[in-house]
Amino acid sequence: MFDSAVPSSPLKQTVLDDLLISLGQNRTLWAPRTEPDGFCRLQLAREGPLPSQSTLTFIPLKKLLLPPREAVWVHRDGCFHAADEPEPFAVVGVPLCDLQAIWYLDQVFADDVPYRARRAKSLLVGMSCEPGLDCRCDGQLMPLAGDIFIGQERVWAISAAGDALLRESGFSAPVLDVPLPWPEGTAEKRQDLSGEQFYSAADASIWAEEGKRCLSCGACSVVCPTCYCFDMQDEAAVDGTVTRHRIWDNCFFAEHGEVAGGHDFRPGRANRLRFRMEHKFFGFGELRGQNSCVGCGRCRKACPVDIDLDRIAERLIGEAAS
Amino acid sequence: MNEALQPMTAVLEKIVPMVVDNSLFTFLPERSIPVAPGQFVEISIPGVGSFPVSACELVRDSRIVSCIRRTGRVTEALYNREEGDAIGLRGPFGNGFPLELFDEKDALLIAGGLGMAPLRALLHALLDDHKRSGKIVLLYGSREPGALLFYDELVELSRQGRVDVRFSVDFAETLPGPSGGVFCRIGLVSELLSDLDFVPGKTVATVCGPPALYRCVLEELALIGMSAAKIFATLERRMRCGVGECCHCVAGGHYVCKDGPVYSLEQLRCMEGAI
Lengths: 322, 275
Ligand SMILES: Cc1cc2nc3c(=O)[nH]c(=O)nc-3n(C[C@H](O)[C@H](O)[C@H](O)COP(=O)(O)OP(=O)(O)OC[C@H]3O[C@@H](n4cnc5c(N)ncnc54)[C@H](O)[C@@H]3O)c2cc1C
Ligand code: SF4
Ligand code: SF4
Ligand code: FES
What we know:
The complex is a heterodimer.
Chain A: E1 8-10, H1 13-23, E2 28-34, E3 40-44, H2 62-65, E4 69-76, E5 79-82, E6 89-94, H3 96-108, H4 113-120, E7 122-127, E8 148-150, E9 154-157, H5 160-169, H6 195-200, H7 205-213, H8 219-223, E10 230-236, E11 242-248, H9 269-282, H10 298-302, H11 309-321
Parallel strand pairs in A: 2-6, 6-7, 7-8
Antiparallel strand pairs in A: 1-9, 2-3, 4-5, 4-11, 8-9, 10-11
Chain B: E1 8-17, E2 22-29, E3 40-45, E4 49-54, E5 64-69, H1 73-79, E6 86-93, E7 106-112, H2 116-128, E8 136-142, H3 151-159, E9 164-169, E10 183-186, E11 203-208, H4 211-224, E12 231-234, E13 250-251, E14 254-255, E15 262-264, H5 265-269
Parallel strand pairs in B: 7-8, 7-11, 8-9, 9-10, 11-12
Antiparallel strand pairs in B: 1-2, 1-6, 2-5, 3-4, 3-6, 12-15, 13-14
The structure holds flavin-adenine dinucleotide, iron/sulfur cluster (2 copies) and FE2/S2 (inorganic) cluster.
Flavin-adenine dinucleotide sits between chains B (40, 49, 51-54, 66-69, 71-76, 114, 117-118, 236-239, 261) and A (258-262).
């Protein structure tokens, strides 16, 4: 459905090599690299060869677009000023599921000036991947964002900027109708949980059980490529300049659902786990109805007690059926 | 510049103490912004933080007037400012009250505590609308007589026969006399409903106060025969951004800051955990 809307042209290795080199010329270039500890992370790609495939990084790319601590304004000499402009950067070797996650964040932050500024300065190059045991991606879940996607035999122009870059580099004019190479077969197919099944099973025993196991550590949200909630924090410098930062927050933290007078709308760990699942699977506001779990499996790797939202979904579906 | 997250400078023009720990603040922002009844703005004190606050008067000549309770860190910092000081302000946010629904109807406003602040802006809008013919009833509950906000103004409106005002208090050593025909009783604000003579099908209700008030009053109004689509309440959440990004205000899948804070009972019934 979404794939055929992305134009592509045949890959030419020499042209591609030149293109990849040119990406790092006036921007910081990041690429995934698996390190001796077994974790794959984005690394500065100044030296060494660029990847020819994508690898899922444990820490998602959102950390570059929504830094854990980011200035949103500065107050100096009695006036509010915009924060500094971000520096341009490119990421090469992004997997398809992460490009979907960026599309989702693009919707959430469509009117957000710092996010838009970072996106305008970013160039995202996807590459095909080898699905791992934890992968449950789905090409039909949502469209992709990013600029270019490099497959084994073709290159796809995802954005207008990507299209321009490919043409400038000497690729032939892209054509529609060749679908993106989503991995097939290996990935586990997730079951569709309907809103009705989710909301009618609010008292299902699984919530008490999983709520008891969940440590409310928030690790799952930190590594999730589509989790984005934040808080604000001011910092005053010696000269009186005040910078307001937005800092990552986490819906597993106890104060997240508190209001004036100390009332807490999500007092228990089960409430908070259920809240995260509601957000992931059903979305909030204008994105209501859009499942934002791209199936990357990071949360399952990060969770110290092996909580798996898809397993909870299966139990809820079973519960609703019985 | 971040249009949504970056405030503009506003001068704190006037501070008028009302009851203990509640003062009326007048802000003059550098650009005029329309803040409709039920909408809110975020007040920023650089170096301390920010908080959402409703307008408690109609915005005329750019000035925004809010009744603010001293309750914590940031409101405390605002109380330490003086007239003439500059602060930060951004908005307006939220949907506001559905004024058009009140056109042909009687208005029943029910306030608990500080809920009187946003309702006062609505009350002013209704009084201002000379085309309206419906009557206005205000039930206002507070902890004690000394905590009733805008007491003199409300008594005066009642005396003029423009608003049927009734107070309730949780406790009182002595009840205020029946001044201006206003009547005050000890008990819950919801108990004032039983003495009321109104036509449910011809009335639009708005309730504003703490969650406990919503739990007892909203469904009771529906039981009396009001349509759930004509009963409104405003939700309070901990708001950080006001523009549907930070997720702090979410209730029943809605960003209360953007889709709300005013919801009908019909909507609230489908919003799990909203009240
Ligand atoms: C739409 C809306 C309209 C409001 N209108 C008014 C008004 O007209 N007048 C008024 O006095 N107050 C109003 N409030 C409540 C006001 O925002 C809080 O009292 C204020 O945020 C407290 O800030 P603080 O830093 O002084 O308190 P804190 O030190 O932060 O905390 C005091 C208490 O308030 C809670 N709290 C903190 N931040 C918020 C927040 N942003 N929203 C809600 N609760 C919070 C804390 O959990 C704590 O229990 C409104 C709130 C909302 C959401
Ligand atoms: S919920 Fe888990 S599997 Fe889904 S996108 Fe987030 S981290 Fe990946
Ligand atoms: S990582 Fe696991 S234990 Fe930690 S908050 Fe998420 S679900 Fe709970
Ligand atoms: S206050 Fe941030 S999403 Fe509503």
